[in-house]
Amino acid sequence: MTRSLHGRRVVLAVTGSVAAYKSAALTRLLRAAGAEVDVVMTRSARRFVGDATFSGLTGRPVLRTAFGPAAAGELHVDVARRAELVIVAPATADVLARLATGRADDLVTAIALCATCPVLAAPAMHPSMWSHPATRRNAELLARDGRVTLVGPIAGEVASGDTGIGRMAEPETIAAAAASALTPRDLAGRHLVVSAGPTLEDLDPVRFLGNRSSGRMGFALAERAAARGARVTLVTGPVALATPPGVVRRDVRSALEMQAALDAALAASTGGADALLMAAAVGDYRPATTHAAKLKRSAESLTIELQPNPDLLREIARRRTGPRPVLVGFAVETGTDDEIAGYGQKKRVEKRVDVVVANPAAESFGRSDNRAVLVTAEGARWLPVLEKTVLADHILDAVVSMLGGAE
Question: Which end of the chain is more exposed for a tag (fewer CB within 10 A), N or C?
């Protein structure tokens, strides 16, 4: 969300509903993500929340009127022209009716009518108002026109204490919809395969060899690739993470199972995907023998023979006959920054891949953020500590750049 909203110009229009207090929380979320927010309030909205609340959160004066001596020039035109996103939250039944019929009798509806950017509206009203045929027609008309996208409403308790569908969506949901609306669809029509998580190599029914990978980096890549329009196949080892929206998930356990799932997703010639992002921490070795029964403890020392697992990324690179799929490898390393970048460049050359994302081990496992260096044939570029979803977008930017010339 931070990457999509950072530096973007958002107009938040607040209309007359008791749910207007939630718009303050939404403003805080948008600002925390780096958006520049201008708040527009209708006269009735100011009966629920004061101007000072929003001007304090945004550092900007609240916009009130498009007409009369307080308005300079064509304020609604200027605001709409600068906006990259307009959000009407809360959107009352009245404002939905005015948006649907193209009225422009206040600053909110005038801006919405002028806007060429995406417009989101978060309905908030009593359930009986939302279910009324007139409101349903207005919502359907807005959907058919395609100029306004509704976020919600949701089921729950409304101000009167009644329950039903009509409650405004939560600020977090609206902020996520805002980020989605501003996310470029530069991977539309592409198929990306992402691997994630650890592999576990069973020794017996209760013991295994594994590693500390949480899977978060791979899942962040899958989530952001899908948000950017890609068809995503996620091949993951055992992790406790929810499948990102719009992603096809394949669960595996061992390195050999992951190899089979990747081969199926890529097709035998590796031509089944536009890019492979190999974020999984695949085990280097597996027990030479897997025991059907639990090994019993004894006073004697135990020696376990290990045999190497195939190098999945190297094998795929060996079969690749052209520039696709773009291959992205990951390396968790120890050492100085220069040493880590050097290891990444060596791995890129030896494995014949396009990009290596190298991380310091102490700053990788089990965290929601990461520091990494992107290593390509052009050199190494260190990124600061970033949330993994933001880092994922930087990695996907590199993939998009390479796909631009890949045929």
Answer: C
